[in-house]
Write a structure and sequence with these properties.
By secondary structure, this protein is α/β, with parallel strands linked by helices. It contains six helices and ten strands; from the N terminus they run βαββαβααββαβαβββ. The relative contact order is 0.25. This is L-threonylcarbamoyladenylate synthase. It comes from Streptomyces vastus.
Length: 206
């Protein structure tokens, strides 16, 4: 059965955040809230975590996983980014955007798009996630919690706990999330390509 962590949305309890972080370090797959919708997350190097996310969402090897980062200093360790692209991303973060960029050697190969060698990165504008990332000291390997054959992500923590009780290890609940996933912008070719319109405004990239 999955553990259930009830976290205050504005003042996350440090003890609880520490427990969630420790479970992730121990190999747990967790459901956690973001500024767009709930997501599945695990430790960066977790082969088991990636396999379980693929299984839950029924993803193929062309799916872009996302590194959810605390800040730009952390993000810069995992992707190659030039000055122009940096300015464009900086103006939009933290926020509900995922950016696809060429990965550095610090990103596990199993996370990469098999042909493009790219990865998704984002910096969320969400108090609970920021607290968790600060406690972890590294990005979360993540994917939107969008189940197969469903058009919208689940929004209620306790319902997720009931539905996924035997396939995830923990659910972090800080209140209902939205149903709109992040806006995805592909910068891997140098120019902004809007891959998915979501919660983030696309006007600056059009």
């Amino acid at each position: 059965m999955a553990k259930y962590f009830d976290v205050h949305p504005d003042n996350p309890q440090q003890r609880t955040i520490g427990q969630v972080a420790e479970s992730i370090r121990s190999g747990a797959l967790v459901v956690y809230p973001t500024d767009s919708c709930f997501a599945l997350g695990c430790q960066l190097g977790s082969r088991d975590g990636i396999d379980r996310i693929r299984s839950i969402r029924q993803l193929d090897d062309r799916h872009h996983f996302t590194l959810v980062c605390q800040n730009f200093a952390q993000l810069g360790q995992f992707v190659h980014i030039d000055k122009d692209v940096f300015r464009a991303i900086k103006a939009s973060t933290p926020g509900s955007y995922t950016f696809i960029l060429p990965a550095t050697k610090d990103v596990p190969r199993r996370m990469l798009h098999p042909k493009k060698k790219t990865v998704g990165v984002r910096i969320p504008d969400h108090t609970v996630v920021q607290a968790l990332l600060a406690e972890l000291g590294e990005p979360l390997l993540s994917s939107t919690l969008l189940l197969p054959d469903e058009e919208e992500p689940m929004t209620v923590g306790w319902e997720i706990k009931e539905r996924l009780d035997h396939v995830v290890d923990a659910v972090v609940d800080s209140g209902d999330c939205g149903t709109e996933p992040t806006t995805v912008i592909d910068f891997s070719g140098g120019e902004a390509e809007i891959v998915r319109k979501g919660a983030g405004d696309t006007a600056r990239f059009e």
